[in-house]
């Protein structure tokens, strides 16, 4: 339970584990249910295109997402993959929606073990591929 009293649905954890362990999905979108009592799976996708993911982010509403982000590191390291947690709260979303999503984020975020980066997006420039790539690869050489 979060401070806002919102619970994380079992299916939300299952979808995350299917992405993380089973590699079943490329990304999972999460939303609050209509009653605003639970965080549920809005959609799952196997689509490899990052653009497809971006197209799913609503222009005027909030959501959470988990994305299995693959990228190449120059040199000998080759392909890496990191699970990224997105909080999408565009400036154009209703204030009430932004408040509820902000206050219930911790419940979902704490439940998802194995996320390596958090991205907060208020407009599309903040979730652009290059922006995310820079953020995840910045810490890549230091492990």
From TrEMBL:
InterPro entries: ADF-H (IPR002108), ADF-H/Gelsolin-like_dom_sf (IPR029006), ADF/Cofilin (IPR017904). CDD domains: ADF_cofilin_like. GO terms for cellular component: actin cortical patch; nuclear matrix. Keywords: Actin-binding, Cytoplasm, Cytoskeleton, Nucleus. GO terms for molecular function: actin filament binding. Residues 5-137 form the ADF-H domain. One of its GO terms (biological process) is Golgi to plasma membrane protein transport. Pfam families: Cofilin_ADF. It is found in: Cytoplasm, Cytoskeleton; Nucleus matrix. It comes from the Eukaryota. Belongs to the actin-binding proteins ADF family. PANTHER family: COFILIN-RELATED. This is Cofilin.
């Amino acid at each position: 339970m979060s401070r806002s009293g919102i619970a994380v649905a079992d299916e939300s954890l299952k979808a995350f584990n299917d992405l993380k362990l089973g590699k079943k999905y490329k990304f999972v979108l999460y939303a609050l249910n209509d009653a605003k009592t639970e965080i549920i799976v809005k959609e799952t996708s196997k689509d490899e295109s990052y653009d497809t993911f971006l197209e799913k982010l609503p222009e005027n509403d909030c959501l959470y997402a988990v994305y299995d982000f693959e990228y190449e590191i120059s040199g000998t390291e080759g392909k890496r993959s990191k699970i990224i947690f997105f909080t999408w709260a565009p400036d154009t979303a209703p204030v009430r929606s932004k408040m509820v999503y902000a206050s219930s984020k911790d419940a979902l975020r704490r439940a998802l073990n194995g996320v390596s980066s958090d991205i907060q997006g208020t407009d599309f420039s903040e979730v652009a591929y290059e922006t995310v790539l820079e953020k995840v690869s910045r810490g890549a050489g230091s492990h």
